[in-house]
Amino acid sequence: MSNQAKGMHGIWTSRWTFIMAATGSAVGLGNMWKFPYVAGSYGGGAFVLVYLVCILLIGVPVMMAEVLLGRQGRQSPINSMREAVAASDSPSGWRYIGWLGITAGLFILSFYAVIAGWALDYIVQMARGDLRGADGEMAAALFSNLTENPLRLILWQTIFLGLCVGVVAGGVKKGLGSAVEVLMPLLFVMLLGMLLYAILNGNFSAAWDFLFAVDFSSLTWRAVLEAMGLAFFTLSLGMGSIMAYGAYMPADASIGKTVLIVALFDSLVAIIAGLVIFSIVFSTTGIEPSAGPGLMFISLPVAFGNMPGGLLIGVVFFILVAIAAWSSAISLLEPAVAWLMEAKHIGRITANVVLASLAWALGLGTVFSFNIAADMTVAGFTFFDALDFLTANIMLPLGGLGIALFVGFVMKRELVSGQMSEMNGTAMGMWRLALCYLAPVAIASIFVMGIYDKFFL
Known about the structure:
Elements: H1 15-26, H2 29-41, H3 45-73, H4 77-87, H5 96-128, H6 136-147, H7 150-168, H8 172-201, H9 204-212, H10 221-234, H11 241-246, H12 255-282, H13 294-305, H14 310-344, H15 348-369, H16 383-410, H17 413-419, H18 425-455
Helix pairs in contact: 1-8, 1-12, 1-14, 2-10, 2-12, 3-4, 3-9, 3-10, 3-12, 3-16, 3-18, 4-5, 5-7, 5-14, 5-15, 5-16, 6-13, 7-14, 7-15, 8-12, 8-14, 9-12, 10-18, 13-14, 14-15, 15-16, 16-18
């Protein structure tokens, strides 16, 4: 890779733009959908406390390492890792961390676009009044009608990927930077508006007690491991996004302080979303906080359909979900686009169209997993189940573990110190302790738990 190619994609206009971009990458369906139902399933407050501790002790150190690698290389994750491996005189196998991240990101984008399409569809359903007065049976039927219609799913999948291409094709400053500078403040404004509605019209006190009343008697080791996994997943670690965004980070920005701000924003979105959702859940008879994955697409629509002004609030809510998904999805596409531009010397628009088309074609497997191929399984996996399991339980943990071990033990100290020069000795020592020992043990536990749950329980 020539020196001329380094930094060919540009630099964020400011540290704040990087914060918005990294927060947009981290904030997605994990915050708006997964965090509330997992917290509900594991009893609330004690789980939330463990989740926040895991964000601080596991997520933040690994995220700092991933940003460091990106800024050191100033290229796509594949070429940044290749350069870091060469500069550290380390075995060449470490460079596959970049390949693993980019591949995982594209795999995730393929099914993420399908799930995000559900949110787009629900915006229309809410706006049309389809869920007015809905009960659980009616909401479940409407959701089934959506997932069992492949053409409808393909339409929304295509629209969502088109929105992603429209942003990423604009480049780092005019595309990604401009988008996150609009989308993220809009997301926070809408989320705070939903919080105000929840305070005034929902059972906010019950939601607050549920999320913040700590009862350790309800906390199991299973819940602790779930909190570790969720903390890792919601920060978008191990999938190339953060490394790619780190490549565009200004040289004078503090990695440690910036990542802490991103983690704070990410956690705030998850907690506020939880307060909003559970305020609505607890104000509606017959809906349980432990409703599981169906909480967003079946249980909440029942609540929206039966509360004063609920359909309008439902429209706002699903727009919020779609924005969160959009800001994450563009970060899944960008690393692969950056690599294709570097490797094949083609334009950004062409690279976008090629890779989005690949994700779209792969996403058809997910679409059909909910309808015409729902009964076609291998070892109990549909195509979607297999891709979800492969990325969440194998590729992301291995990628994150590789990043922690490489930066912690293999990368030359002077390269690490050069990127972390703003940290004093005490802070550097605490970071290295967490990165070298706490994070690898935790990530390995997540990996083992995922394999054990699927094949041995």
